[in-house]
Automatic annotation (TrEMBL), chain A:
Domain FAD/NAD(P)-binding: 14-319
Species: Dictyobacter vulcani
Membrane-spanning parts: none
Keyword Nucleotidyltransferase among record annotations: no
One protein family per Pfam: Pyr_redox_2
Domain Reductase C-terminal: residue ranges: 343-418
Cellular component terms per the entry's GO annotation: cytoplasm
UniProt entry tagged with the keyword Oxidoreductase: yes
Keywords recorded for this protein, A-Z: FAD, Flavoprotein, Oxidoreductase
Cofactor(s) needed by this chain: FAD
GO MF, any single term: oxidoreductase activity, acting on NAD(P)H
Name of this chain's protein: Pyridine nucleotide-disulfide oxidoreductase
From TrEMBL, chain B:
Top-level taxon: Bacteria
InterPro entries, A to Z: Fe-S_cluster_ET
Name of one Pfam family that matches: Fer4_15
Keyword annotations of the record: Electron transport, Iron, Iron-sulfur, Metal-binding, Transport
An MF annotation (GO) of this entry: iron-sulfur cluster binding
Gene3D superfamilies in the record: 3.30.70.20
Signal peptide location: none
Name of the protein in its database record: Ferredoxin
The keyword ATP-binding appears for this protein: no
Claim: Transmembrane helix is one of the keywords in the record: no
């Protein structure tokens, strides 16, 4: 045993963390940083120690980063008991007990639920099990896809033009592979950035030789007698001959194991209050059980306390910190989670970054730089206030926009930037009507 | 040794690339690619890179294996 101070906090307490990825690890680190001296157990359904997911759709696939180099840095001595390759299968809130897939039960004093999301699968009856159809969520997915792409296949089809789909399209072009990107909406990144910004991404992709099919969906994948993928049938009646398909149609929240626990968990995530404490189905706070990361649905102060789940790296880190801090605090000292979402995505050599909630914006305007050169900042407005900003290769401005968002600054913004475009014009951001209330 | 870079915070100044060009690479104007698991011979250069980062986005930590090994030694 390590010989740290016997005056450490809560020496006899056992905190269990379910989910051994970014949020789970950062929470354990935050507990130790705050001198938690009790026991920490981390349960993860994957056999791997925590690893970083963003490279899995980027430079793991290009071959720049070997998959063995993706494990996350441990930034504190977490002194945890790791139970890897084992899933939590049920939670008994009354008994403070978890059931595990290896048949064991685990008692806890406090619990952090950070079970994240998984890739939405493609239905088997429409070709989901064919050899050549891939998802990208975990290490094995990325490794297998890397090996396939390295063998220089014929045309690759990507179903879904969200961030993952666009990043993989970029990788394919970098590897000089023919690629077709199929997106249901009018532009790539329609759901994340809206069609106004999305049309800029569409142009970028077409300039790089992506065969972009918008307002189109995949009906089915078809294979040969040996079960190898050979073609995709699209909703416009066209047929594309392909060797590889990548399904990038978003993520599902890993909450099924909480059915029967009485917690407010469904396919949209696990609901918590502003202190990251989970709620039960009646909306009451459950003492001693917290949540963080992709799976958590929390009241977002930027949009009137609407519950949202934010499936970004930065949210996993920040909410883990918030939950861990509150786990070790008296209720009077709880800190509210006032996170402003942020993300980055690199594609076709361009770094796309955002702060705030773009998909809550009604309007958008380019405020700095040049769209033609893919070097600009655009601000999103909602009811006369700035709600988000996105940058293309101009990330260093975002901190200033973050402050404007925090302050509830007016939209259109009053800037005195030297690189302001001559006629700044606000236009509809162009989001799907449904996404606004998701 | 393991490295983590907060790419939300990173602004692509590229100071880290000067400090250790084989671990940190700028692709395009501001896309940073880095090797989270460089060999120990990079330690000094990586520490220099972390210190040089104008926005302090580089964190140096340990690997899972390093921590597990230590905890087993103490058992």
């Amino acid at each position: 045993m390590s010989n740290h101070s016997s005056q450490g906090l809560r020496k006899d307490e056992h905190i269990v963390i379910v989910g051994a990825s970014l949020a789970g690890l950062r929470a354990a680190e935050a507990l130790r940083r705050r001198d938690f001296a009790g026991q920490i157990t981390i349960v993860g359904d994957e056999k791997y120690a925590p690893y970083d997911r963003p490279p899995l759709s980027k430079h793991v696939l290009t071959g720049h980063l070997p998959i063995e180099h993706t494990p996350l840095a441990m930034l504190e001595d977490v002194r945890a008991t790791w139970i890897l390759g084992v899933a939590a299968t049920a939670l008994d809130v009354e008994q403070r007990q978890l059931s595990l897939s290896n048949g064991e039960r685990l008692h806890f004093d406090q619990l952090l639920i950070a079970t994240g999301t998984r890739a939405r699968p493609w239905p088997e009856e429409r070709g989901g099990k064919l050899d050549g159809v891939f998802l990208i969520r975990d290490r094995d997915d990325s490794q297998q896809l890397r090996e396939r792409l390295a063998r220089k296949p014929g045309r690759v089809l990507i179903a879904g033009g969200g961030f993952i789909g666009c990043e993989v399209a970029s990788v394919c072009r970098e590897l000089d592979l023919e690629v077709t990107l199929v997106e249901r909406g009018p532009t790539p990144l329609y759901g994340a950035l809206g069609s106004s910004m999305g049309s800029i991404v569409a142009r970028l992709q077409q300039q790089h030789g992506v065969d972009l099919r918008t307002r189109t969906t995949v009906e089915s994948f078809e294979g040969d007698a040996a079960g190898r993928l050979c073609r995709a049938r699209l909703s416009d009646g066209s047929v594309v001959e392909i060797d590889v398909a990548i399904v990038a149609l978003g993520a599902l929240h890993n909450t099924e194991w909480l059915q029967g626990s009485g917690l407010a968990a469904d396919e949209r995530g696990l609901v918590c209050d502003t202190y990251s404490r989970v709620l039960d189905a009646q909306g009451q706070v459950v003492e001693g059980i917290f949540t963080a990361g992709d799976v958590a649905r929390w009241p977002q102060h930027l949009c009137d306390g609407d519950l949202i789940a934010v499936e970004h790296w930065g949210n996993a880190v920040d909410q883990a910190e918030n939950a861990a801090g509150n786990m070790l605090s008296a209720e009077t000292d709880y800190r509210a989670y006032k996170h402003i979402p942020a993300f980055w995505s690199s594609q076709f050599g361009i770094n796309i970054k955002a702060v705030g909630l773009p998909n809550r914006g009604d309007e958008v305007m380019v405020t700095q730089g040049s769209v033609e050169r893919y070097r600009f900042v655009a601000a999103y407005g909602r009811q006369g206030r700035i709600i988000a900003a996105v940058s293309f290769d101009q990330g260093r401005w975002l901190e200033a926009y973050n402050t404007l968002i925090e302050e509830g600054a007016t939209y259109p913004p009053q800037l005195a930037a030297a690189d302001q475009p001559e006629n700044m014009q606000s236009q509809p951001a162009g989001f799907p009507a449904m996404a606004r209330h998701a | 040794m393991r490295i983590s870079v907060d790419l939300n915070r990173c602004q692509g100044y590229g100071q880290c690339c000067f400090a250790d060009p084989s671990v940190f690479k700028l692709r395009g104007e501001e896309v940073l690619e880095f090797d989270p698991a460089p060999g120990d011979e990079h330690r000094l250069k990586v520490i220099r890179a972390a210190k040089a980062c104008p926005v302090q986005a580089i964190y140096i930590g340990e690997s899972y294996e390093e921590q597990e090994e230590r905890s087993h030694r103490h058992e």
